[in-house]
Amino acid sequence: MTRIETFKALTRDIDGIHKPLLALGLFKLWSLIFGLIPLFLYSFLVNHVLVDQKLHELWPVIAGFLAVFLLTTIGIAAAKRFSNQLILKFDLRIKNKLLKKYISLDSEVYSNYSIGDVKSRIENDSAVAGKFFTTHVLDFIYAVVYAIALAVILLCYDWRIVLLSFIFVPVSLVTVNFLGGKAKRTGEELWKLQIQYESFLHANFQNWKDIKTNNLEDAQLAELNGHYKKIRPIWFLNQLYMHLGITYSFFTKNFITQLFIYFIGGAFVIKGYSEVGVLLVFINFYGQFFGFIENISNAMMNYKSDSVNIEKVIGILNVETDKRPYKKIAGTGLTVDNLRFTYEGNDSFALDGISFSVSKGEHLAIVGQSGSGKSTLAKLLTGQIKPQAGAIQIGGVDIHTVSGESVSGKVSIVVQEPVLFNMTIRENLLLAKAGATDAELIGCCRRARIYDFIETLQDHLDTIIGEKGVKLSGGQRQRLSIARAFLQDRDIIIFDESTSALDNENESDIITELKSLSSGKTMISIAHRLSTIVDCDKVMVLKDGRVAAFDTHDNLRNRNEPYDLLFQSQYMTG
Ligand SMILES: Nc1ncnc2c1ncn2[C@@H]1O[C@H](COP(=O)(O)OP(=O)(O)OP(=O)(O)O)[C@@H](O)[C@H]1O
């Protein structure tokens, strides 16, 4: 992407950039103007004060230099302050926007991104994109304008000689552009390898317990070395191209430019410009001009390399998000009509022709063999994935015609492996209801049969529970997650094997509690225990993604073959 395309893409998605950018641009212009004045002062000093020996004019020149120094310093300091502020502000805005985008992605779209990819885009790539406006827009324009201004001044001296020496400028820029292209291609490859490495590291940290218990340390170290073996040659190539580009512009500035300076000096003498002053001033301007050409070359090189990261950020910003309207859903009854769903890349349907309804206050149990589609149905009912055909209606509203927030305001799901953060119990609970009082938190924890345990902890609700709640047992994690569902207090609650780690007594206590609370609530349990199923108003049996039976437990028992088989194999032990 060119700078202009990148500028448009980033400003389209991130607001509030134009004003601070304009302010910063004005300070840059200030620095540019006051940066050019010393050249004229220098010219005056050499030609009038030194060559013409008008030493009494030295004081105004010194005063001029001091004034310019003061004003330039003010300009540079202000520009630095504004640019730091802009970078930090913009970096944070991009991170916010990216996180928001990721959270609003369809779970199917999200599953296309690895952890390393997400982490890299939010952490590293956004930081590079955050500097785009200062480094790749303002600094670049500054160098170009400065170089043009110097070129015009030089042309005024002797356009033929200057034009001859300018031949080297396009050669230099084309070479750097070529090397930059190579650096970009290797940068792309490096980025892919690095996100694989990041994902590996993430999985390693997440599963360190299992790695130790299964003696996988050596295998993990071998994998780490494997990643480095792949990364090393590409990294080397990438650095080689980058440094070739930078060394090339350094060489151009310090050798080729010097060569031209001697050439131009000779030409001046041959053409009879005897004044030393003219030659000195010209050489000074010329050296500065090539200094800016070096800056432009380096900026081109760096932009090629940074655009790998910036394009990753824009890639996510461009992903379409949910544009469906928010609607408060009034009713609580759930109707599912002829639902069909296939996971991307799978040949067979995970669910096919699913139809059923659950009325307000009813409790439905969903049972079925492993892989029969129970969790997929739960994901569809919460709007996490969209069906290829059919409809799900809550209170008469098709949930796929309204925004995700409309559905999550109505339905909550408690899963087998709850999402818990390395924060305190209180903070984990408050995620469900910001601003809940202690009395509310304690009440919900009591109902979820977790408060007795919390009371035994030294810091009570303020105990930090570790990464993914590692300091809690499986059952305690599930109870905390159920307490969160109580806090959310949605009209429809789905339990996806969410009591699997509880003992029978705790599970039945929680179910009783739910029932007492949920006179008006609709509940769906993906059940694994007989006690849960027997208590439910209806049981739906899923087999190979289809509804094999839908009735009460009493009507199904001994009368429905799939249910009986399942019952004997799974629930007789419940
Ligand atoms: N993210 C996914 N991508 C591709 N296929 C998937 C995905 N998740 C589930 N499936 C497939 O969809 C089918 C239904 O899976 P699902 O998880 O809904 O079954 P389940 O009844 O909940 O199983 P279990 O009782 O073992 O949890 C399975 O064949 C499974 O392999």
How would you describe the shape?
Answer: elongated
CATH domain class name of the largest domain: Alpha Beta
Mean pLDDT across residues: 83
Radius of gyration: 35 Å
CATH architecture grouping of the largest domain: 3-Layer(aba) Sandwich
SS content category? alpha/beta
Unreliable segments of 5+ consecutive residues:
none
Largest sheet: 6 strands, mixed
Terminus-to-terminus distance = 60 Å
How many structural domains? 2
Physical arrangement of strands within the biggest beta sheet:
6-7-8-3-9-10
The total beta strand count reads 10
Please describe what this structure looks like.
This protein is of the alpha/beta class and 574 residues long. It has two domains: 93-317, ABC transporter transmembrane region fold (Up-down Bundle); 334-571, Rossmann fold. Helices cover 65% and strands 10% of the residues. The protein is built from 21 helices and ten strands. The strands form two sheets. A six-stranded mixed β-sheet has the order 6-7-8-3-9-10, sandwiched between helices. Helix 6 packs across helix 7 (159-166), helix 8 (168-206) runs antiparallel to helix 10 (217-270) and helix 8 (168-206) runs parallel beside helix 11. The longest helix has 54 residues, at 217-270. The model has no long low-confidence stretch (mean pLDDT 83). Bound molecules: adenosine-5'-triphosphate. This is ABC transporter ATP-binding protein. Residues 334-569 form the ABC transporter domain.
